[in-house]
Design brief:
184 residues, mainly alpha, Arp2/3 complex 21 kDa subunit ARPC3, 0% strand, transport, Biotin transporter, cell membrane, transmembrane
Length: 184
């Protein structure tokens, strides 16, 4: 792995930490708050590609595990990684990898709507399916109840998916994916 790739991964881990500084929106009926950090997950996949996108999220989770307060609300530590948010957090590297994989496939003919569809499938649906199911298991509630509660995330997640697709298209020329395509 090149130094430039490691720097990109570290920068996106930092970006996701910065997005964690935006105050969470607690819902009351579900123990997981609405956060801006999934925007960073989608951006990591769309902009960096599968390998660097997933690596940036692994680095981020390591930062959480060692106790740095990088999650929304200043949370960090191992307790968070076994709490109700665990499924959402652990779905992030998988999500970034899948978004990056499909982004790399479509990159030569990339369009905003294609990135949006990829973000909606993996950055919204997959994260919520995994996160809500594991949250239900951890909180000892029915999976359907967790999935119904997760519907509250959909409006904001759809907006984040649009933002990630638009930003990626605006920065397409400097994306590491573009460099790979040009090198072929």
């Amino acid at each position: 792995m090149k130094t430039k790739e490691l720097v990109y991964a570290a920068l996106f881990a930092a970006l996701i930490a910065v997005l964690g500084m935006i105050p969470p929106l607690p819902l009351g009926f579900i123990p997981v708050p609405i956060t801006a950090q999934t925007l960073g997950v989608m951006l990591a996949g769309c902009f960096l590609g599968k390998r660097m996108g997933a690596l940036s999220l692994v680095v981020f989770i390591i930062l959480v595990a060692i106790g740095l307060p990088v999650l929304t609300g200043g949370r960090g530590g191992l307790a968070v990684l076994v709490g109700p948010s665990a499924g959402y957090i652990f779905s992030w590297p998988v999500t970034a990898w899948l978004i990056g994989w499909y982004s790399e496939i479509i990159w030569p003919k990339v369009q905003t709507w294609k990135l949006l569809v990829i973000n909606l499938i993996f950055g919204v649906l997959l994260v919520n399916l995994i996160g809500a199911s594991i949250m239900a298991w951890i909180t000892n509630t029915a999976v359907w109840a967790g999935l119904v509660g997760a519907l509250a995330f959909l409006p904001g997640d759809i907006i984040k998916a649009v933002i990630a697709a638009v930003i990626t298209m605006q920065l397409k020329a400097i994306s590491p994916i573009e460099e790979k395509v040009q090198a072929r």
